[in-house]
Structure to design on (254 residues):
């Protein structure tokens, strides 16, 4: 049975203050893996799961990608969701990317005649917000795009080298809009145009790279099969951290 705890993780916290509500299958949540969790300005929690997109409030959950007529998107595998404003969310499925209008309850697909018809139709592997507020997007075929939401423009930047045996899986931003891109066994630093600047020291002993993320202080972290690592773009190095760091990161404001 799938379940979700909604609560506050600010420090200090007592045990009886942690869990405010538990959601499970009776609330409409299916037994599916959660790929991503995000929070909008209205106070909703958005769950991107392998079986749909869910909006969670303090009292109920609602599946957004499905109605009485069936699935509203190309597929129900939701990879990630990024709140852009009070009105729009950026939503990626396994196969496609969408803008979701929360007010009108409508999805618009990237690469369709109605929205960015020049763009390839594909899902996203990762995204990262730049210093100017725009987003760098990495799609499933290794193409980089810059998405300027206020201007509503999508600009192709570069196509990364393609290797079917070593696919790109994550994107993060370093300082000065540098890009940090990961494959399972490789971590690269590239400039804002996608040009290679260097390769991080990553060995087989470090295991397989799983994900990249940035904390509230804009530090970059890497999750691997062997643990959590701090990423240092200036020196092209990584440093493994201990469990107390993981606890500290979990309790930071998001």
């Amino acid at each position: 049975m799938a379940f979700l705890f909604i609560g506050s993780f600010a420090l200090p916290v007592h045990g009886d203050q942690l869990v405010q509500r538990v959601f499970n299958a009776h609330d409409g949540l299916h037994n599916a893996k959660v790929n991503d969790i995000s929070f909008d300005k209205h106070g909703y929690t958005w769950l991107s799961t392998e079986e749909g997109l869910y909006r969670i409030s303090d009292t109920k959950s609602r599946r957004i990608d499905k109605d009485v007529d069936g699935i509203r998107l190309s597929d129900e595998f939701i990879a990630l969701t990024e709140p852009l404003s009070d009105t729009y969310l950026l939503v990626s499925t396994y196969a496609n990317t969408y803008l979701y209008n929360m007010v009108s309850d409508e999805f618009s697909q990237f690469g369709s005649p109605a929205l960015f018809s020049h763009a390839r139709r594909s899902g996203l592997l990762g995204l990262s917000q730049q210093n100017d507020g725009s987003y760098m997007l990495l799609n499933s075929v290794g193409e980089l795009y810059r998405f300027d939401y206020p201007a509503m423009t999508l600009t192709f930047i570069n196509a990364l080298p393609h290797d079917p045996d070593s696919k790109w899986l994550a994107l993060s931003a370093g300082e000065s809009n540098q890009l940090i891109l990961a494959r399972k066994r490789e971590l690269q630093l590239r400039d804002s145009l996608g040009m290679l600047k260097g390769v991080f020291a990553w060995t087989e002993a470090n295991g397989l790279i799983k994900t990249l993320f940035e904390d509230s202080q804009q530090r970059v972290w890497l999750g691997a099969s062997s643990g959590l690592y701090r990423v240092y773009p200036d020196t092209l190095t990584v440093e493994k951290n201990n469990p107390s760091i993981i606890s500290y990161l979990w309790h930071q404001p998001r």
